[in-house]
Amino acid sequence: MTTAAATAVIVTLQNPPFWTFLALLALASLLLVAVGLAGARATGRTYPTYWF
Fold this sequence. Notes:
It is built from two helices and no strands. The chain is mainly alpha-helical. The model has no long low-confidence stretch (mean pLDDT 83).
C-alpha cells in the first residue's frame, strides 16, 4: 500500500503532460491484463472470472 501511495505522489509532483500520462496509464493497464491472460492460458485457469 505504501508503494502505491509513493508512486502516486511521485507522479503528481512531477506534473507530467496529461496525454503522456494517459498513454502510459493505458499501456500499463493493457500490459497487466495481457500478463494475466497469458498466465491463465498457460495454467489452464479462467481469467478474468467475470467481467463487470
